[in-house]
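User: structure tokens for this one?
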Amino acid sequence: MSALINKLLVFVVLLIIGYAGARKGMLPREFTVSANKLVLNVFMVASILNSVTANPPTMEGKNLLVALGVMSFVMIFSCIVSGLLTRLFHKKDEHESLFEMMVAVMNPMFIGLPVAEVLYGPQSVFYISLINLPFNLLMYTYGVWRLKGKPGEKTQLKWRDFVTAPMVATLLSVVIFLVKPPIPGMLNNLISTMAAATMPLSMVVIGSSLGGVSLPEAVSDGSLYVVAALRLLLMPVLTWLVLRLIPMDPTLYAAAIITAACPSGILVGILSLQYGLDATYSSKGIMLNTFLSMLTIPVIVALFL
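Assistant:
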């Protein structure tokens, strides 16, 4: 637990550095946009590949299907429950779809992946990376449908929306896991070195991406505390209540609970801006969620893992 606390404190410091740098103009929007692309398309890819090249997971093919099924369940369950909770806690207004998606969509790659690596090692990283498959499928179908238009309206979806670097890296990591090809030592060193940069750079990017929101603004909207409570506390508790009944590998179980405990995904803010919704509202929610998760994740880990 002390290792987790130390790691989360490092997260907070890096978040503050990114946030303060953006507020002071040292990290302009151009940096955030470019660095975000770099993290997602290069360093995150290295982390996913490193999960099967550094210390290859030891499991049979059928266990891989079980792991994919469990991580898919976490994502699908989150979407279903968030839809029900939105009808219960939020009135129909301009923020309804943003409220729902901030509760449904977690941030496993930026937050869950480094936390799991600290506590459970590379195999947990491989498990969490598997969520890219259902994550991309649901975000670019159901998520786009909810954010781009109202129910009943036609929404154009392109196959290219499903093809992302983390998705390709996840598929490649599955192939590497199954085939177990020899990896040259130099390539292994390159992948592990780049993977080590993922966490610090991603935390700075998250902080800088929230630089357009002032702290007083972020903490003044009561509905965002409801989002935080549902996303950070209720979701992992409900996920735990279901998964504890299913026998599975302890590392897979831990990866699933950590994923469910992650704060709202930044992709919600990106898509809200793209589709002309209230990006300020989503940015405030993501900012509040991210900072509060530094407190709630240790609690979830202590209680359920």
